[in-house]
């Protein structure tokens, strides 16, 4: 390990093309010894970095540390504002100590804080955050692993950015439809369009605002592929191309997530001994807020209970996944209301 990490040096090389001359020139800096960290671009580098920061969660006792590759997030929770402030101060000190012991310097400019709170105009004195005497600024929203999160847990910002990406893909498909065959165009849809829809849909897919905008763009994309005008209904096109509607895609991803991870399996028969018609359904915990009702677990249970019994009874996950997809392709649900009340 010592021989791999020590005695290394690095330099920076920049390629430059002069406008007056077609020849490319390279400019290199002088070599500098690498005193800290792991070699960039190496195979072992990412693994060694993960081993290096793997003990960070144990160093912070008043908060939950979420690590994903080189992205680190600190989650501090408390119902009382004073207790939250105390936990924040302690956690910041523990972080400072860990960084000092491990000879790491945090980039304050890339470090942001988000204060989660309910919707509505409320003036709350947020805890001041300092690391090494440098203040961490608060932001109203940020991008977390490709998903835009706001302080009031609204998905409007994420949907706004998603719509921009989808419109760019629409332009791509429109440019390609005269150049490639229909099967290739369908493959482009799955690779470039549906991949954007799938990402994080279990979180934002049941939102109230903006969902119809995304769905309209999806229908516009299908009409482009089919070469029909906007007045033609495209419900039958979803089945023809074997493409899930936005609502069906949300149902599919949520139910697969719930079933694969076996997160919740409490039925009504486990809660009470009454011999009711719905005793084999999963128990839906009471919720007082719309945010709780639209959570992944709560919505997943309601979606699961509304499935036909022959699909719910399937034990093998792969078979369940295939049968569920065939069912959703056949129904082509346009909304959750249609799934719950017309299913």
UniProtKB/TrEMBL annotation:
<feature type="domain" description="Reverse transcriptase">
    <location>
        <begin position="1"/>
        <end position="149"/>
    </location>
</feature>
<protein>
    <recommendedName>
        <fullName>Reverse transcriptase domain-containing protein</fullName>
    </recommendedName>
</protein>
<dbReference type="Pfam" id="PF00078">
    <property type="entry name" value="RVT_1"/>
</dbReference>
<dbReference type="InterPro" id="IPR000477">
    <property type="entry name" value="RT_dom"/>
</dbReference>
